[in-house]
Design goal:
Length: 418
């Protein structure tokens, strides 16, 4: 045998699986088809800018991040906990009162906080803030849209903030996702200030990979995964690898190819990255557009931010980095550059003529779909010696990826323990 366990895929789930297996005293080999670790969590360096593949943030309030990641070493640079919203009445601010007390007057004057609707939202979310398991396991689940309607959350906070913000977070504008999952997400946003690592989001998987005694073997593609008496064999473009067990921690399309398991449905988005000579905004908040008469954006962009205001290391001196996100499940998802620029000019009230496009990432499988009822502990064992892990086995988040990898490793450790 070449190893006790071979892990196919060096995304967050695969790396956490490998780290846990190593701590259990097992010999682990990790292979990755791409030229670096991270899976969907990747960062490109372009003309001194850091452009993550898809607009991603790391929430330090995730329990798995607190338990297994050295947050201080990442040098997190935090966004503001709140949003700036473009409404038909103008730009409005809604900020976390505990983290931005100086913005309480602006939030109260925003016109977004109807007392009846706010009370309904607190009742809808309240139990989850106290204990996460109340939402994921004890509350009857339904779609997000139906749940908010039933709770009476139907005013400006819903129309101009929640629907638009959550569509960007979930890469899903339908409102058909799990309400219980969204409760968990909002809990994490209430408890933590999401941010970006000093060296880009890819610094997270790179930190995890450094814990492994045997380095990840990158640019090694698995072509076939075969189980036999006493073990498994993985056929790669560098020859076969044998082990006692194997874990497929691969992207959704590869699950069918390697395991004959149906690929989970997923949602996608695109991210535009612009370099600007002047910052179009002087704050570190996410910007939303809810200026359409029926709510939501009046163009292709669902959220945007001057990333370099929150994370100065993301742009070189004298330049600013602006991101803009579109959703692939929406007609504007593949909008041309001119439409994206025109929409950003309306959002920021500033010209984009001198902005340079650094990258345009189209990510069709950004996140697995999370329909109701929420199932955050999907089966991971495929057969006697084959397992899989990923956020599609838990929750569609960094938290879910880490927990899924750890859970698979614990199951394998129990199986192989002498």
């Amino acid at each position: 045998m070449d190893a006790d366990v071979i892990v196919i895929g060096a995304g967050l789930a695969g790396l956490q699986c490998a780290r846990r297996l190593q701590r259990s005293g097992l010999h682990v080999r990790v292979i990755e088809a791409q030229d670096s670790v991270g899976g969907r969590v990747r960062t490109e360096r372009i003309d001194g800018h850091l452009c993550d593949r898809g607009f991603q943030v790391l929430n330090p309030a995730y329990p798995a991040v607190r338990a297994w990641i050295d947050r201080d070493a990442l040098g997190l640079q935090a966004f503001g906990v709140g949003v700036r919203v473009r409404t038909p009445a103008g730009l409005r601010t809604l900020a976390h009162p505990g983290r931005h007390p100086g913005l309480i007057p602006q939030s109260l004057r925003s016109g977004l906080l109807d007392a009846v609707e706010l009370s309904a939202l607190v009742r809808w979310l309240g139990p989850t803030l106290v204990r996460a398991s109340v939402s994921s396991r004890a509350t009857r689940d339904t779609t997000l849209a139906a749940s908010l309607d039933a709770a009476g959350v139907r005013g400006p906070l819903r129309r101009d903030v929640l629907d638009t913000f959550l569509a960007g977070v979930l890469a899903d504008s339908s409102g058909g996702g799990s309400a219980n999952y969204v409760r968990l997400l909002l809990r994490s946003f209430a408890l933590g200030a999401p941010g970006l690592p000093r060296e880009g989001m890819q610094a997270l998987p790179e930190q995890m990979a450094r814990d492994l005694r045997e380095p990840v073997r990158t640019a090694v593609r698995a072509h076939e995964l075969r189980e036999h008496a006493g073990g498994v064999t993985v056929t790669t473009d560098h020859g076969p690898i044998s082990a006692r067990c194997a874990v497929a921690a691969v992207a959704a399309p590869d699950l069918e190819r390697l395991l004959d398991v149906p690929a989970p449905p997923s949602h996608g988005l695109t991210t535009w990255w612009f370099s600007a000579p002047e910052a179009p905004a002087d704050d570190a908040f996410l910007r939303l557009d809810a200026s359409h008469p029926r709510g939501g954006p009046d163009g292709p962009v669902w959220n945007t931010a001057v990333v370099s205001r929150a994370a100065p290391t993301y742009a070189p001196h004298g330049r600013h980095l602006v991101e803009a996100t579109t959703l692939l499940d929406h007609p504007g998802g593949q909008a041309p550059e001119r439409e994206v620029r025109a929409h950003l000019e309306r959002i920021y009230g500033a010209s984009t003529r001198r902005w340079e496009v650094l990258a345009h990432h189209v990510v069709p499988h950004t996140l697995p779909a999370q329909p109701p009822p929420l199932v955050d502990r999907s089966p991971q064992r495929i057969s006697a010696r084959l397992f899989m892990c990923g956020d599609h086995r838990d929750t569609a988040s960094i938290q879910g990826a880490l927990v899924s990898g750890d859970r698979a490793a614990r199951a394998i450790g129990g199986l192989l323990r002498p």
